[in-house]
Amino acid sequence: MTITVIGNNTGDDFSGTNDCHLLESSPTTTFNSLSNVVDGRDTVRSVILQQLTGLSSIAASEVVSSVTLGLFRETSNTPSVSIYLHRLLKTWGEGTATWNTTDGSTSWTTAGALSDGNDRSATASVALVMGNASIYYTVTDTGTFMSDVQNFINSGYPNYGHGLYITDTNAVRAVTSNTGTDGQRPYVAVTHAAGGAASLLPRRSPMNTFLKM
Description:
The chain has one helix and twelve strands; from the N terminus they run ββββββββαββββ. The chain has one helix spanning 144-153, and strands at 2-6, 18-23, 36-39, 46-51, 62-72, 81-87, 126-130, 136-141, 162-166, 171-175, 187-194, 209-211.
């Protein structure tokens, strides 16, 4: 049994993931160098795109028993919000995706990767609830999000990653992998074992494998 953690957060070199964000107010601009994103206000909508390339280090024969997502909320003293992850259905470029396009030239079916069944899965894979404190928020899933990751590993789905969407009207800023602050970058912990289910171990288990984000 092993826990593979993508995003070590300390001395991070940003490998193991692609992520960027799409900003409605700047629909033709690429944003993959900003450190924080996600704004729920109707006038400044944005979306995080996150692709876990580090999953390629896990053998296709491995069986996933749980997946934990951690995301740091930069702002505090504002209402709680929920961020919904939808599996993406189109390939996109970390350095080229915009609100209008997947890669600078190919349009999303609906700008912002918002078309259910075309740009993204119609049903959210999981919701990450963030409170009003500036800390890490995590969600551990053994359902659809875990199934997505399992299918990415064994090629059941092409690994285009997930879009992180917020439907609340309250503003929130969440940190992406480009932040210069150790301990605030997102991470995903995948618990897996060869040929059978496994129970979740502490993240600091000696068997943990770390893939820096």
